[in-house]
Amino acid sequence: MKIGFSLPQHGAQAREGARVAHYATALEQAGADSLWVGERLIAATNPAVGYAGKPTIPDEFNSVLDPLLLLGIAAAVTERVRLGTNVLIAPLHRPAHLARALTTLDVVSNGRLLPGFGIGWSPEEYEASGVEFSHRGARLDETLDALEAIWTTDPAGYRGRFVTVPEHRSELKPVQRPRPPIYLGAFNPAGLARIGRRADGWLPVVPVPGPPAWGQRLLGLRELIDQAAVEAGRDPKAIDTVVRVNVAAGTDPALVADTIEAVAADTGFDDFFIDLLYVADSLDAMLDTSLGLLERLRG
């Protein structure tokens, strides 16, 4: 089983950003398989849409470190772990800027980047970026098309309804060929179908604590991905799955480990990363919890 962890990025953890390199190094030395970041641009004071079905936004999102800069730090001090984004809100980014940043990460990490994308849920983040909140799915598709063009052709360019990249020289390519694998986070039917049609991997979420038989729910969603893949003439087995484990405040680490083992047994998924955003209010506590979970899950 592959086990990874989120980097210290939000809330009190963000205020210890000077020690992110230490955290990344310690986890790689302990045998972790991957390190991850997410993306929050702003935490609106009066959100039109709250987080996770609630009317509010968690206090932890009031302090946040930049995801791509964090991955750059982790890339500089590690040699083996995969470096993932779960997720970057692709429509908020200009494709040329995004391609340059992700290419840089893949080059300096020697091909360890695992880029995951989504469409987000916050209208205020779109407003802050100068991007219309509507047609987010179409903007995501065009952004992925533009990345594909920049990463695989030279000269490269792209013109769509929402996204334009003028033709330009694009000699520097990612280490991973023909490009880094594209992972997408989704739970709704349209997003799952998009994964089946075009993605290299799926990024589902498991909450801890959570309802029973969560693994069976994931398998049902995965069937929708596989069906869309077959309809698109693709092999569903070529689409990977990395499961994000969202741990609620106050959760016993033993329950986290038990849940991961149960989901793995029910689904056959063997690649997980644990997000301790709400669990630890200091980097030392976060590291202690991570190392304990790694030891338990690795036996």
From TrEMBL:
<dbReference type="InterPro" id="IPR036661">
    <property type="entry name" value="Luciferase-like_sf"/>
</dbReference>
<keyword id="KW-0560">Oxidoreductase</keyword>
<protein>
    <submittedName>
        <fullName>TIGR03619 family F420-dependent LLM class oxidoreductase</fullName>
        <ecNumber>1.-.-.-</ecNumber>
    </submittedName>
</protein>
<dbReference type="GO" id="GO:0016705">
    <property type="term" value="F:oxidoreductase activity, acting on paired donors, with incorporation or reduction of molecular oxygen"/>
</dbReference>
<dbReference type="InterPro" id="IPR011251">
    <property type="entry name" value="Luciferase-like_dom"/>
</dbReference>
<dbReference type="InterPro" id="IPR019921">
    <property type="entry name" value="Lucif-like_OxRdtase_Rv2161c"/>
</dbReference>
<dbReference type="InterPro" id="IPR050564">
    <property type="entry name" value="F420-G6PD/mer"/>
</dbReference>
<feature type="domain" description="Luciferase-like">
    <location>
        <begin position="5"/>
        <end position="266"/>
    </location>
</feature>
<dbReference type="Pfam" id="PF00296">
    <property type="entry name" value="Bac_luciferase"/>
</dbReference>
